[in-house]
Amino acid sequence: MRSFRTWSGYHTTIPARWATPGSEAEIAALLREADRAGRRVKVIGSGHSWSDIALPDDVCVDLRRMRRVLAIDAAARTIRVQAGIRLEEITDALDRVGMALPILGSIAKQTIAGAIATGTHGSSLRHGNLASLVVAMRLVTPRGEIVELGPEHPWLPAARVSLGALGIVTEVTLSTTPAFRLEESLETRPIERVARELRTIAQSAEYVKIWWLPTQGDALIFRYARTPLRAVARPLARFVDEKIVNQTLFELALRAAGRYPSLTRHVNSIVMGAYFRAGTRVDRSDRCFNLAMPPIHRETELALELDDAGALLSEVAGAIHEDGLVVNFPCEVRFVAGDDAWMSPAYGRDTCQIGFYQAESPHLAKYFARVEEIGARYDARPHWGKEFSTPGERVRAAYPMAPAFLALRRELDPRGTVQNRFLLRVLGPIDRAEAMAAE
Ligand SMILES: Cc1cc2nc3c(=O)[nH]c(=O)nc-3n(C[C@H](O)[C@H](O)[C@H](O)COP(=O)(O)OP(=O)(O)OC[C@H]3O[C@@H](n4cnc5c(N)ncnc54)[C@H](O)[C@@H]3O)c2cc1C
After folding, report:
1. Do the strands 4-5 and 146-149 form a parallel or antiparallel pair, or are they unpaired?
2. From the CA of 179, how far away is ligand 1's center (Å)?
3. 15 lines ligand 1 (CB under 6 A)
4. pLDDT for residue 51 is more than 70
5. Which residues form the FAD-binding PCMH-type domain (predicted)?
6. How many C-beta atoms lie closer than 10 Å to residue 60's C-beta?
7. In the chain, how long is the greatest CA-to-CA distance?
8. What mean pLDDT is predicted for residues 184-203?
9. Is the CB of 123 under 6 A from ligand 1?
10. Which of 18, 46, 55, 110 best tests ligand 1's pocket when mutated (most atoms within 8 Å of CB)?
11. How far is the CA of 6 from the centre of ligand 1 (A)?
């Protein structure tokens, strides 16, 4: 029996059946059969979500055999790929022809379909999340119909960030840009000033993000600007950061601090010394966006109106202090241009997405609960791929287009064929029978 395990190891399940279709026609047949037989089908990406959004209850569909680049159109500046391809495979294919994605998150191990389904984002007020790059896609509906969603198709804004609730995406076409290099520069600034000056900081470069270790007074501002300077690739440094520092030394230190929280302050000081230093470097854009893989930890994240984010950050800082919470991982402040994808955390507003991270520790549950409690007062939306326990009605209330999305889901999936426990909890039951079963 094969098990599905999320990257953090927090969620594991053994699906009743594991399917690895190699074509859209196979997916359509599988869904038609499941829909007739009343089975539940969940398509997975690479399992990099912290939430249980990708957890299959019954049949698991794994698109590892559907990960090809189908076409690169240099004139239109687009790339068409199969849905199971990893982001890093897309960036490498684009780089070979002098092209790039204009934005990326901090890793590129995710599948394109998984990344867009949760609103995965990088950090820039001039660019939206990855889903905002989608100009077309192909979708197999839960009843097995194949639909081409072109740029003008009315379902495209729903399908860009779909939570996997509308069917199985088989192909995605993304807009791209000519390849570019970035110069990274770092600055430390007291967190109180950062909270007050957030909008100005967000607008101070094309790409800006902020890290802050809640036990420390200073935050670190990362700025990235396009540059004609030559890239200096650092494969050895990346290897050392990933395998030796992050996944061995930092991981061991975090485990020790998880058991003995009083050690956390010392671990944090070492992290500050190692990472929170001013400096500069030049590299290929994707190598600047992506970081060495971090040690295992858990994440929750709030997406809120940019102008509210400073106040929320100050409140969280106050709560950490008042409650004596020991936080062992940096908090990350990022920016995302507003978009029109119905269920995107950045729908309709320029957004600040603040990630609160923690390796296992006795303080984790209380920390995340406090963050969510404060976020609720700021009309914050959760990141679909990160942990949250806000009740479904409250989550849906933060999305103006949720009623339209739910209506489309009911039309496409009347029998709940692609429903799982996460979707039931967050989007609610599809019909009365499901509502009664959930009670
Ligand atoms: C170390 C690490 C770093 C991260 N960095 C960032 C970051 O910088 N920014 C950010 O925003 N997030 C980040 N994330 C979160 C991550 O990007 C998202 O959770 C993303 O959705 C994971 O993609 P996946 O391929 O693993 O999808 P999964 O987690 O496997 O699935 C996510 C959802 O996508 C759906 N899905 C997958 N394939 C399809 C398909 N073909 N058709 C329809 N639905 C589909 C699934 O059903 C599920 O609902 C990070 C996660 C980790 C572990």
Report:
1. unpaired
2. 24
3. no
4. yes
5. 11-179
6. 24
7. 62
8. 96
9. no
10. 110
11. 10
Residues 318 and 347 in one domain: yes
Judge if 111 and 90 occupy the same domain: yes
In the listed set 390, 411, 427, which residue is the last one of a domain according to the structure? 390
Give residue 269 CA to ligand 1 midpoint distance, Å: 31
Assess whether the C-beta atom of 172 lies below 6 angstroms from ligand 1.
no
Q: Which domain holds residue 434?
A: 1-179+392-439
pLDDT at 233: 73
22, 96: one domain:
yes
Whether residues 267 and 361 fall in one domain: yes
Chain-centre distance for alpha carbon 89:
18
Task: Tokens for 268, please give them.
Answer: 């944090």
Distance, CA of 206 to CA of 36 (rounded, Å) = 50
What atom in ligand 1 is closest to the CA of residue 84? Answer: 41
Residues 186 and 162 grouped into a single domain: no
Q: Tell me: do 189 and 63 sit in the same domain.
A: no
Strand ranges of the sheet holding 381-382, from the earlier edge strand across to the other edge: 280-284, 181-190, 218-227, 207-212, 331-336, 351-358, 298-305, 381-382
Decide if pLDDT at 270 tops 80.
no
Q: Could you identify the residue written with the tokens 């509502």?
A: 435
Answer whether 86 contacts ligand 1 (Cβ < 6 A).
no
List pLDDT tens digits, range 345-387: 999 999 999 999 999 899 999 999 999 999 999 999 999 999 9
Give the end of a domain, one of 369, 390, 411. 390
Ligand 1 centroid, distance to 367 Cα (angstroms): 23
The CATH code of the domain that includes 282 is 3.40.462.10
Q: Give distance in angstroms: CA of 161 to centre of ligand 1.
A: 11
CATH number for the domain harbouring residue 401: 3.30.465.10
Q: Are residues 56 and 203 in the same domain?
A: no
Which of 6, 103, 120, 138 has the most ligand 1 atoms within 8 A of CB, as the residue to mutate? Answer: 120
* Percent of all residues in the chain with a pLDDT value above 70, rounded to a whole number: 96
Identity of residue 131:
A
Q: Is 316 in the pocket of ligand 1 (CB under 6 A)?
A: no
> Does ligand 1 come within 6 angstroms of the Cβ of 160?
no
What pLDDT, in 10s, does the model give residues 96-138? 999 999 999 999 999 999 999 999 999 999 999 999 999 999 9
**Considering its fold, how many domains does the chain have in total?**
2
CA angle centred on 287, ends 281 and 291, rounded to 5°: 95
Mutating to test ligand 1, I would choose from 40, 48, 300, 412 the residue with most ligand atoms within 8 A of its C-beta, which is 48
Q: Confirm if 68 and 86 have CB atoms less than 8 A apart.
A: no
Q: Are residues 24 and 68 in the same domain?
A: yes
